[in-house]
## 1
Amino acid sequence: MAIFYNSGSLHGTNLRMARFIRFDRAAVDREEMMDYLHFFSPVRISRGQGHPVEEIDSVAEAMVFLRKWPTGRRGPVYQCALNCCSAALSGQMSPEEARKAFTGFARITRLLDDDMMLPAASESMAKVYALRR
């Protein structure tokens, strides 16, 4: 939203209104940005048998998951995923690039749900089993 004024100066009421409109626009922009930060398809996290599968479907949810990750298990792959999600939140990276980094983190830590590890139709099952070793 652009605000144009006919007069050369802003007077009391107009200045307060301009500040309110700018503040309101920033809140709308933040909400719109959060909508854009959703992944095209969720990353499915499985913590093992007996635990429900968790679907992470946005950069914000990935950040929450990463921040809860145990400090002693935070390595370079964790740091890469965290950096990518931070970059996506600040608009320096696309949500899909952040999703790829988060998916890599989930795969390395063996949290990625088995359904997400299925190959494309042209790949053989031998390649899938080779990746898991």
## 2
Amino acid sequence: MSDEITTISHLPPEIWAQVIVLARPHKLPKHILPIEVVLSHVCSDWRSVVISSPELWANIKIFSPKSLAYLPTYLQRSGGWPLSLFLDLYDAEKPSLYRNGATALISSAFLDTLAELVVPHVSRWRRFVMFTIREANSRHFLAHVHGLAAPLLECVKVLVEMPAEREEPATQDASSTEPLVPFSGGVPLLKRLDMESVYSWPPVSNLTFLQLQRLTEESMTFQRVVDGLKEASNLKTLLLHRAIDCLDWPINAQPILELNHLEVLSIVGDGLSISKLLLALSAPALRSLWLESTFATGDGMSQLMSSTQFANPEHKFPELRYLTLQLMNLQHVSSCARLFPTVSHLHLSFCPTWGWRYLHDIFKTTPVAKWGNLKTLIVRTSREDSRSNTVLPAVLAACRQRAEAGLKIDTLLSDQGCLEAFGSAQDILKYTNPQALSLESYDEPLWVFREMGDERF
């Protein structure tokens, strides 16, 4: 063993440091010592290399007040290296949720102390992630970066389990309703932003990726959302996941929001909200559209069908190739082929079992052919649904229907459960070619992004 250590120790320090960086696990349980700490206690040579390599100390994770003990060491050893700051306070906040009189470990005093240590280094922040239960805690900490510049900041993620309106009044910060703009001094390199519940976000003019979730309803007015997205004119990916209550939004006869670089759009919400968002938007470069909604009454689809924007639907999203319908009632989406005629890949993901009998309505070819460019159908269901007597017959009938109309679906992609069920159908190869859904067989950008484990960077 001593010979092995000696051999490794003869590597140039910068090479040895990079080996450690590459060996560092992507995810590490909170109770396990980080690799930089472990290796710094192997021997004096290793300790010297590890301590003198600032990149090894640039990932700082804070879980509770106990983390403050090592924070100054990380800040000092990271030197001038860009910092990735992860504040995962979820577990430390849990005690306050119990009814046994326990108090939370996360207090305003702790957040202030934490800010006193890390905010002076804001010019080095490259990535900032904060995960809390109570929105008041996120707002309290973010108040410390209000008005500050973060010239190296590339990614920001703030996730909140309990929005302010669900918190007990006594737990809310008296200043929590005051407007704040984190990093309002400037974030010229900020490309990716993921905000949940917290109602204000940093400057977004250079963003290419934006995810908004469960924003505070009273602050996210129609005009504020439009103004914010207009500022983010360079967006390529926009995810709106139950982010906005659109009940009071107007129904726009013409788009009022131009996102000329947008390529991927995902919306989770009720049918009317989805329709209002689509009608407000002009996205000539849009390639992929994800919709997740019950469309319980079909009102949202009817709203789109009656709009003059879809009189010539191929002009609305002319570059659209990928359409994903997730958890949607297929009974109310038969008009999708009329609304999005340029689609070449249709992804039906975990739609309710009983709705599959309406699949043939989506693929009807009379009085006019629908989805003339459609070549790939992607089907994902639960293992139980894949074994049911609903999904397989519906998909087989749809593929037969297309083939007989001269509009054959060349490829049928599915996960393992469905693939086994489709393989049992003896005549399916007459109408399509079943294949396993994988990164090699399907290249839709958002699906690839999520499959690679980078859904929330």
